[in-house]
Amino acid sequence: MILFLNLLNQAVTIYTYALIIYILMSWVPSIQQSAVGRFLGRICDPYLDIFRKIIPPIGMIDISPIVAIFALRLAMSGVAYLLFAFI
Questions:
Q1: Average pLDDT over residues 4-25
Q2: Are 41 and 29 in contact (CB under 8 A)?
Q3: What confidence tier does 60 reach under pLDDT thresholds 50, 70, 90?
Q4: Is pTM, for the whole model, over 0.85?
Q5: In degrees rounded to 5, what are phi and psi of residue 61?
Q6: Which PANTHER family does the record associate with it (predicted)?
Q7: Alpha carbon distances (Å) from 60 to 23, 26, 69, 77, 87
């Protein structure tokens, strides 16, 4: 069970880093057109689109990625708590 939790935590951490890199890449549109940018777009956009539908941009600032990362980390904490509660 601990091994599963460690693997899940590593996967969430890697995905969080991928989200951060994808968000930073949005500042330079030419980087998003590269192979890495398209790959990150395929894995990050479906998750970010959920929050973009709920939270509209404030002027030119899109805060939905911040909420998405926070929700991902909160879900990971909840899963860890539930697993440790039943062990």
A1: 95
A2: no
A3: confident
A4: yes
A5: -105, 125
A6: PROTEIN COFACTOR ASSEMBLY OF COMPLEX C SUBUNIT B CCB3, CHLOROPLASTIC-RELATED, YLMG HOMOLOG PROTEIN 2, CHLOROPLASTIC
A7: 14, 13, 19, 31, 46
**CA-CA-CA-CA torsion sign (10, 16, 18, 21):** negative
Identify the CA nearest to 34 among candidates 52, 21, 47, 49: 21
Cα–Cα distance measured from residue 75 to residue 72, given in angstroms and rounded to the nearest whole number: 5
Backbone angles phi, psi at 52, to 5 degrees: -65, -30
Give CA angle at 57 (55, 61), nearest 5°.
130
Report the residue count for the chain.
87
Helices (H), the chain: 2-25, 29-32, 35-54, 64-86
83 contact partners, CB below 8 Å, separation of at least 6: 1, 4, 5
